[in-house]
User: Fold Glucose-1-phosphate thymidylyltransferase from Shewanella psychropiezotolerans.
Amino acid sequence: MRKGIILAGGTGSRLFPMTQVVSKQLLPVYDKPMIYYPISTLMQAGIRDILLICRPADLPLFRALLQDGTQWGISLQYAEQAQPNGLAEALIIAEDFLDGGPSALILGDNLFHGDSLTPLLAQTCAIEPGAALSGATVFAYHVSNPQDYGVISFDKSGRALSIEEKPVKPQSKYAMPGLYFFDNRASDFAKQITPSGRGELEIVDLVNMYLSSNALNVNILGRGTAWLDTGTPDALAEATQFISAIEKRQGLKINCPEEVAYRLGLIDDAQLRELAKPLLNSGYGEYLLGLLQISH
Assistant:
């Protein structure tokens, strides 16, 4: 089974002073903590074992909020990243947790939403019994400011040619979002990476190792999928406004782990009812109880 990794480390310096004493992944995005969103994304992909990597000072807060995951029918474990040494370091920290198996790495400040996203993630994540797993899968998303991200360029046939980290002159407008699927070689590959000029193990270097060995698959996310990066005050505000607008319009919550767990059959009616009780004053609990009425 593929296991999940959420990297919720870093100093969040672009959000200072909001994040001077608390992890940005514990900040709210409209009606729920930011960390709920990547957890829900991994759950929808079919992942049940997740390792959350964070700063040592933040670990007790994450553990108090998320516990061991059993309330949502999953298993949550924790590990520390003492210094922000780069995204690829997450695969090294998670080596024992992965135990030689494949992984899905998602950044704790990346939000995904879209009707076609769940089946795409489930298909990408799935491992057929007895089948050999080789390679990595990343995604490409059209953005107006590609110079701020890792940029994927393609040839005329749509085959990925290169991936550059924050290029001055981007070769395309397709950014690589913070969600990556790797085979069982990722931890070993990460150990081979040389720190970049900013002293970090870059995820682009890890992905390029798969690209150079013709073992990289790139899926383009269409217009019906939203990818939100919440690393700056403006981006955080925009994400909150987006989630608020959609939820109010549809009357459905986005990336609500309790609902995801219930709809996937990971928890039953009684468990959902217990999760709703302490949340009734905020309206969040009423929404969860409403799911019981809809299902019956």
